[in-house]
TrEMBL record:
Signal peptide: none
Gene Ontology molecular function, alphabetical: metal ion binding
UniProt keyword RNA-binding present: no
InterPro entries the record matches: 3H_dom_sf, 3H_domain, HTH_11, NadR, WH-like_DNA-bd_sf, WH_DNA-bd_sf
Annotated protein name in UniProt: Transcription repressor NadR
Top-level taxonomy: Bacteria, Bacillati, Bacillota, Clostridia, Eubacteriales
């Protein structure tokens, strides 16, 4: 299989998957080295307008599947992270990212792509094993999540549940419009 055919197959594999695919897994499936996959991803990013994300769990196409998105501003302790994420995914939402608005640094964002309790467990385990603090620590626990879902009704239910749990935080006038996301 030549490079063009391999990259076409690689895109087809990413389009078929709603879960991240590791470089090693893709390399085995296509019969090449992981380094070839890394190079192919760089070429695909340069030659297409597709958003190809590289997460800690592997590669995936960005902005796929879910047609609706909403940004929620929340505040809670690190101990409530599991409860927050479960409230979102249990109602059918997918947590695309976490970001903070820092008055000096601006928006600082990290990709999450969490859609299940199993993925919450993996994320929290990875966070606990690292020496890093959650991003929300730099803004006194205030942070935002972009949540994707199949309908506005799901996003309304997520918003209501986060409110019931006391996790929603009020938006402030100094927050830029693109952070508000509503």
């Amino acid at each position: 299989m030549n490079g063009e055919a391999r990259r076409a197959k690689l895109l087809a594999l990413l389009r078929q998957s709603h879960e991240p695919r590791s470089g090693s897994e893709l390399a085995r499936e296509l019969g090449v080295s992981r380094q070839v996959i890394v190079q192919d991803m760089a070429l695909l990013r340069a030659r297409t307008d597709l958003e190809i994300l590289s997460t800690y769990r592997g590669y995936l196409l960005g902005r796929d599947a879910a047609p609706c998105r909403r940004v929620f501003k929340v505040r809670h302790s690190a101990a409530d992270t599991r409860r927050e994420l479960q409230a979102i995914v249990d109602l059918g939402g997918r947590v695309e990212d976490v970001f903070v608005f820092h008055k000096v640094y601006g928006v600082v964002r990290g990709a999450l792509r969490i859609a299940s309790r199993r993925e919450i467990d993996a994320f929290l385990e990875r966070l606990q094993e690292s020496s890093s603090e959650p991003l929300m620590r730099i803004t006194d626990d205030f942070h935002y999540h972009t949540v994707a879902a199949d309908s506005e009704e799901i996003l309304d239910a997520v918003e209501a549940r986060l409110g019931e749990l006391g996790l929603l935080a009020p938006l402030r006038e100094y927050e830029p419009e693109d952070v508000k996301g509503r």
